[in-house]
Write a structure and sequence with these properties.
Strand order of the largest sheet: 1-4-5-6-7-8-10
Shape: globular
Protein name: DUF5131 family protein
Largest sheet: 7 strands, parallel
Strand content: 15-25%
Oligomer: single chain
Radius of gyration: 18 Å
Length: 245
């Protein structure tokens, strides 16, 4: 599946432990921008509706579109723009939209009037970095109507037991990653393995998409360049799949 990003607004506020070394905050500060300033994107707001000079969609049908990965779709400051964003999502039902959030408590009040049990082309993912946040957020998420639900264990800061949540609601995907950056907190292989095993036992798709900068396996700490973190995560996933055969 082709993938694309769409950031209709930019900027966010740190909310919990996983935000400490937020990549967006770090990048904005490095470029002299205020990461706390939430602004509608004049250059990208209507990106899913744009066509090229030949009349073809710039984001082709069938593409998975990651929404607001430099912000949070359910931020209060975005209340003024969200209805228009929902209209764009509604219109492009030939795409698959992935909306990730830490602000689960705001989802219910921010859904469109015709949401019903959810739209078939929208997946909402809740991000959790430790057991406390997983239990808090997934308890709320379990009450939200949605046809496609996912969990992002990212950045994974400690072992998380998702079994009760895998059994209580239909989660299609759990996607895991370590933390990136100079000051990133280490991610351990055994934490990844536990989530993989629990996901497999409950029929939940598993993705380990990034090791993070500091990765521990067999009690050896590896410092992994950003360009290699994705390939090393894929290698680790293949190892897990073969280990239990």
């Amino acid at each position: 599946m082709n993938k694309a990003g769409w950031n209709p607004w930019h900027g966010c506020h740190k909310l919990s432990e996983g935000c400490k070394y937020c990549f967006m905050h770090t990048s904005d500060l490095r470029h002299g921008r205020d990461p706390e300033l939430v602004c509608k994107s004049s250059s990208a707001f209507d990106l899913p509706l744009r066509k090229d000079r030949n009349g073809f969609w710039k984001i082709p049908s069938g593409t998975e579109v990651a929404v607001c990965f430099t912000s949070d779709f359910f931020l209060e400051e975005a209340d003024l723009w969200r209805d228009e964003a929902w209209s764009i999502i509604r219109f492009r039902e030939d795409l698959r939209f992935l909306i990730a959030t830490k602000r689960v408590e705001r989802i219910g009040q921010c859904l469109p009037a015709d949401w019903g049990e959810g739209w078939k082309h929208v997946m909402i993912a809740v991000s959790c970095e430790n057991q406390r946040r997983a239990d808090e957020r997934l308890h709320l998420f379990s009450k939200i109507p949605c046809k496609h639900k996912a969990v992002f264990a990212a950045p994974l800061l400690e072992p998380i037991d998702f079994r009760v949540w895998f059994s209580q609601m239909r989660i299609e995907l759990v996607s895991v990653s370590g933390e990136n950056g100079r000051y990133a907190r280490p991610c351990r292989f055994e934490w990844i393995e536990r989530i993989y095993q629990d996901a497999k036992a409950n029929g939940v798709a598993f993705s380990f998409h990034q090791t993070g900068t500091h990765f521990v396996k067999d009690n050896i700490l590896y410092t992994i360049r950003r360009m290699d973190q994705f390939s090393q995560a894929k290698k680790a996933t293949r190892y897990l799949a073969q280990k239990k055969r």
